[in-house]
């Protein structure tokens, strides 16, 4: 007998959720067995926009709600895709899991580590699937970096140095906060600025490639001198200067100052006993490998092809399922990482297995961001990850927890 389709619903239908809808649409076109039954957003027109888009490819129009709890009660989804502001992730995800619904939630897992721990506890109690939408590690370039660092040609990893500086094209005459999305600029709703927004992607990638981080030392600041027009200023950082110490002995630096104007300099560099992996851009999407003697250079596509060739057939099918990514170098249907994260969730829901990026992985990445913010809050003191994960160090997060009733 044919399997029932997974009954999927969207909660939070803003910018990133529209990208997810494109990803779900691509999977639908490739034969994935799910049906979108509802869309909920505090702004009804956004949920209605999702419903109209989905109707275009699935034939039936999902129901539209402004109250996600009502949608869960009435539409009875078996899985939800949550793309709300960060301070709602735990409330929505815990509410859904307690109603027996599986959850994929956008990064970061939660607004603070206390909120994250509640989500892991709810997943443990209910046996619901909890997945974090994390696309960066799934692109072929980052996968190739993980291969190179995990016994591949990079040898023993020694140093990573990541720079995201400038290129903001910001008119200095504009001094008011651009709308929409002011929630991103407030500590209580976002949990931090760029250290959370971009930082959890970097943290997840670094943990995946190089293993646990032991200690971070950081300072943060805000270069963009913006106000809301009434004298109030955003309460989160837009720049961070970070040193990382890995359990393995590897060292790292990450500099982010993406709100500076002028020429943008974005690159990722990774060094090991076997040579280097260097990639332009925010993330190592097209990494070039150079061997220790400089003689062996593999440009991005060649390096990625060498990685793909090194995979066993089952590994390749697990990481790049052929029905989603027949050719990972020429993906069809938009962002391959998004399609892969959604397909991984769908398979986890169907087979009741752990997703690749579940609550534990989401919490580990979020803890790196939290440790950076805690170190900066303590005036640049080194902070041990263990102390942040256990809750012994939480001065930055305490006011957020207090404001959200999590303390
Ligand atoms: N993976 C990525 O590359 C990436 C990129 C952008 C954003 N994100 C993540 O996606 C999430 C959403 O970010 P965004 O950029 O789409 O923000 P957004 O502001 O565009 O969307 C958030 C939506 O949530 C809705 N919302 C607010 N309160 C709600 C409630 N109580 N019930 C239902 N809906 C509610 C808002 O109306 C809005 O439409 C965040 O976790 C963010 O970090 C990830």
Can I get a quick summary?
The chain contains 15 helices and 15 strands.
Mean pLDDT: 96
Strand content: 15-25%
Radius of gyration: 21 Å
- The number of distinct helices, counting runs of at least 4 residues, comes to 15
List low-pLDDT spans: none
Order of helices and strands: EHEHEHEHEHEHEHHHEEEEEEEHHHHEHH
Helix content: 25-40%
Ligands? nicotinamide-adenine-dinucleotide
Biggest sheet architecture: 9 strands, mixed
Structural domains: how many: 2
What strand line-up does the widest sheet have? 14-13-12-11-7-10-9-8-15
What's the CATH superfamily of the largest domain, by name? Answer: Dihydrodipicolinate Reductase, domain 2
The CATH topology assignment of the largest domain is Dihydrodipicolinate Reductase, domain 2
Q: What is the straight-line distance between the termini?
A: 49 Å
């Amino acid at each position: 007998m044919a399997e029932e389709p997974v009954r999927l619903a969207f909660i939070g239908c803003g910018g990133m959720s529209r990208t997810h809808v494109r990803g779900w649409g691509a999977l639908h076109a490739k034969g994935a067995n799910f049906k979108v039954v509802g869309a909920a957003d505090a702004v009804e027109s956004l949920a209605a926009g999702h419903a109209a888009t989905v109707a275009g490819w699935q034939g039936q129009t999902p129901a539209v709600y402004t109250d996600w709890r009502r949608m869960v009660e009435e539409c009875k989804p078996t899985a939800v895709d949550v793309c709300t502001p960060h301070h709602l992730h735990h409330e929505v995800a815990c509410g859904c899991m307690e109603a027996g619904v599986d959850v994929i939630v956008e990064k970061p897992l939660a607004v603070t580590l206390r909120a994250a721990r509640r989500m892991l506890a709810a997943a443990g109690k209910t046996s619901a699937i909890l997945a974090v939408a994390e696309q960066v590690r799934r692109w072929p370039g980052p996968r190739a970096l993980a291969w190179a660092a995990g016994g591949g040609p990079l040898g023993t990893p020694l140093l990573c140095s990541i720079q995201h500086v400038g290129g903001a094209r910001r008119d200095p005459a504009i001094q008011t906060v651009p709308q929409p999305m002011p929630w991103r600029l407030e500590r209580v709703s976002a949990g931090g600025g760029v250290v959370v927004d971009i930082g959890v992607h970097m943290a997840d990638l670094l943990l995946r490639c190089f293993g646990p981080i032991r200690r971070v030392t950081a300072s943060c600041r805000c270069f963009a001198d913006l106000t809301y027009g009434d004298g109030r200023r955003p309460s989160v950082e837009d720049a961070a200067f970070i040193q990382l110490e890995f359990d393995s002995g590897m060292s790292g630096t990450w500099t982010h100052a993406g709100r500076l104007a002028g020429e943008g300099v974005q690159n990722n560099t990774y060094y090991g006993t076997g040579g280097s992996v260097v990639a332009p851009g925010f993330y190592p999407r097209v990494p070039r490998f150079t061997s220790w003697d400089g003689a062996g250079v593999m440009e991005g596509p060649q390096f990625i092809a060498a990685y793909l060739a090194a995979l066993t057939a089952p590994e390749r099918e697990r990481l790049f399922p052929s029905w989603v990514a027949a050719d990972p170098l020429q993906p069809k249907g938009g962002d391959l990482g998004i399609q892969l994260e959604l397909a991984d969730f769908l398979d986890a829901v169907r087979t009741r297995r752990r997703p690749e990026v579940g609550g534990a992985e989401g919490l580990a990445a979020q803890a790196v961001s939290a440790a950076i913010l805690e170190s900066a809050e303590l005036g640049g003191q080194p902070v041990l990850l263990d102390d942040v994960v256990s809750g012994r160090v939480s001065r930055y997060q305490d006011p957020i927890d207090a404001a959200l009733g999590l303390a």
